[in-house]
Write a structure and sequence with these properties.
This is N-acetylmuramoyl-L-alanine amidase. InterPro entries: Amidase/PGRP_sf (IPR036505), Amidase_domain (IPR002502), PGRP (IPR015510), PGRP_domain_met/bac (IPR006619). Belongs to the N-acetylmuramoyl-L-alanine amidase 2 family. The chain has helices at about 30-45, 85-100, 160-170, 180-195, 220-235; strands at about 50, 70-75, 115, 120-125, 140-145, 200-205. It is α/β, with parallel strands linked by helices and about 240 residues long. It has a 6-stranded mixed sheet, sandwiched between helices.
Length: about 240
C-alpha cells in the first residue's frame, strides 16, 4: 500500500514478519498515519466519522500524554445505561461524563474508536495520545467501544443488576445482542490497526489486570464472548 508517506507505519504486515522487522515511525509523521488509518478504513468499505463530524468537545491537550507503539487492543461496551441509538449523541454524553468536574476527570473521551450498531466507525481520542479506557493500564493500548450495553441483566451483583434482573423477568429488557454488521466492522477495524501497529493482544476491558467498578463488568458477557471469538479468528493473545 502506498499512502505517499515515508516511514509512517510501525509494523510490517507481510506474512512471516516479526516485530524486529517493523519500521519505526518518525514523530512528525504520526498525523499522516492517523489519516492513513482513516483512509484504509474507507477503503475496506466502512464509514468513518471524525471527531469534528460528531462535534466532539475540545480536549485538554495540555494535559494529554503522547503514545504510539501500540501492541494491545481493549474492547469495551458503552455501559449498562446505554443501548443502540444515535451514536453522536451517545459519544457526546460519554465524553461529557468522562471529562466532568470530578477530581479524576479525563482529558478527553477515553476510547480511541467507537462502533455504533450500524457498523460505523467513530474517532474518539486522537490515536496519537494515550487513552484512558483501562484503569492503570493504558500505555500501548488502543481502546475501542461498542456503543451499546452488552451485559446480561444479572451482571454486576449490585442494585442496578437487581433492578435489571427484575425487569428482565417481566419482559421489559431486551437481551443484548451484537448485530452482524457491527461484528464485521470490529473485525475489519482490528485488521486495519494491525496494518499500522504490531498488535499482539486483544482483550475485553475486564480481562486486563487490576480493574474495578464497572471495569469488572465491561464489555459484558456478550461482548466478552465476541472478544474470545475474535481472538480465535485472529490468533491474538489474551491479556
Amino acid at each position: 500500500m502506498d499512502y505517499n508517506v515515508e516511514h509512517w507505519t510501525s509494523a510490517c504486515s507481510a506474512i512471516g514478519s516479526t516485530k524486529d522487522q517493523a519500521v519505526e515511525i518518525k514523530v512528525n509523521n504520526r498525523a499522516a498515519t492517523r489519516q492513513a488509518i482513516i483512509n484504509l478504513v474507507h477503503v475496506r468499505g466502512l464509514n468513518f466519522v471524525t471527531r469534528s463530524d460528531w462535534a466532539a468537545h475540545k480536549n485538554r491537550s495540555e494535559r494529554m500524554v503522547d503514545d504510539w507503539n501500540y501492541s494491545k487492543i481493549a474492547i469495551h461496551h458503552a455501559g449498562r445505561s446505554f443501548s443502540c441509538g444515535p451514536a453522536a449523541l451517545q459519544l457526546k454524553e460519554i465524553q461529557e461524563m468522562q471529562m466532568g468536574k470530578r477530581a479524576a476527570a479525563m482529558d478527553d473521551i477515553g476510547y480511541h474508536y467507537a462502533l455504533d450498531c450500524f457498523g460505523n466507525v467513530f474517532e474518539g481520542r486522537d490515536i496519537r495520545f494515550k487513552g484512558e479506557s483501562v484503569h492503570n493500564y493504558n500505555t500501548g493500548v488502543i481502546g475501542i467501544a461498542l456503543l451499546e450495553n452488552l451485559s446480561a441483566p444479572y451482571e454486576g451483583n449490585d442494585g442496578i443488576a437487581a433492578i435489571r434482573t427484575l425487569l428482565d423477568r417481566v419482559g421489559f429488557i431486551q437481551r443484548p445482542k451484537i448485530v452482524e454488521r457491527q461484528q464485521q466492522s470490529l473485525r475489519t477495524l482490528i485488521d486495519v490497526l494491525s496494518e499500522f501497529f504490531f498488535i499482539e493482544t486483544l482483550g475485553g476491558h475486564r480481562e486486563f489486570p487490576g480493574q474495578s467498578g464497572e471495569g469488572k463488568i465491561c464489555p459484558g458477557n456478550v461482548g466478552l464472548a465476541l472478544v474470545q471469538e475474535l481472538r480465535r479468528a485472529t490468533g491474538l493473545n489474551a491479556p
